[in-house]
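F.,

This is the one I mentioned.
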């Protein structure tokens, strides 16, 4: 069985004090939840402040990006080893905002996934089509290219910890959540692409999260879909109460 993952992507929000206040609010609200993996992803500068606040909780810490080299003359970048050093166990890779604004490609995403795995970080590998691609009927073509490009060259063993996040770009921050049917259709397709690359057994074990306007009132429907194994939450993860009620979708 695939254990659900609910991850909060805080994006470019929350200073250290704001992050600590949010954890203080969130931790008691998700205490005792052991059937869902809970992850939060603050900005780089906040990472080192969180492990102490998260001690005694089962909330894991993720970064929002990583570079593929371990060290060197790469001004502004952060390596897998440095993320581990800061207390992160997970890292979001290839978010559509990075693809859109920061020149991330399937090739850079692939290098980052490999580097993260080598550094013992769990990649949360993001994919998703734009509205333009969907309207042109290219959704599956885009998803196939992103999945194949991102996971190229991985072994079945390397694939095992990888978490995929399907985030249709048109649903991010728009309040326009994909319907359960749209999301399920994309997730089943993505699992099929993974199966073609790594075999059905490996694909059946991979968690595929949905992201894009996930809220307390739509998470239940999404989570009832056969191939949806969790959520990557933006806006609704910035408040303890709404994120906790998403984490507790099954209650
Ligand atoms: O991009 C997202 C998570 O990575 C989704 O953001 P929203 O939940 O704000 O739509």
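My design for it:
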């Amino acid at each position: 069985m695939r254990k659900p993952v609910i991850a909060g992507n805080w994006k470019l929000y929350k200073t250290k004090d704001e992050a600590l206040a949010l954890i203080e609010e969130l931790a008691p609200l998700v205490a005792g939840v052991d059937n869902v993996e809970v992850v939060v992803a603050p900005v780089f500068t906040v990472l080192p402040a969180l492990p102490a606040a998260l001690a005694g909780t089962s909330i894991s810490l993720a970064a929002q990006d990583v570079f593929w080299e371990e060290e060197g003359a790469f001004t502004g970048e952060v390596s897998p080893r440095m993320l581990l050093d800061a207390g992160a166990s997970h890292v979001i890779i290839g978010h559509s905002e990075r693809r859109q604004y920061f020149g991330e490609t399937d090739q850079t995403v692939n290098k980052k996934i490999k580097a993260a795995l080598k550094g013992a970080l769990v990649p949360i590998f993001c994919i998703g089509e734009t509205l333009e691609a969907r309207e042109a009927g290219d959704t599956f073509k885009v998803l196939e290219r992103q999945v194949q490009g991102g996971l190229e060259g991985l072994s079945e063993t390397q694939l095992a910890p990888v978490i995929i996040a399907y985030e249709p770009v048109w649903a991010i921050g728009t309040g326009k959540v994909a319907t359960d049917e749209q999301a399920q259709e994309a997730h089943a397709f993505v699992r099929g692409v993974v199966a073609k690359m790594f075999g059905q057994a490996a694909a059946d074990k991979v968690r595929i999260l949905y992201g894009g306007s996930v809220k307390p009132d739509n998470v239940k429907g999404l989570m009832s879909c056969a191939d949806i194994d969790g959520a990557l939450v933006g806006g609704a993860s910035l408040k303890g109460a709404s994120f906790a009620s998403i984490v507790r979708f099954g209650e």
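The mean pLDDT is 98.

Talk soon.
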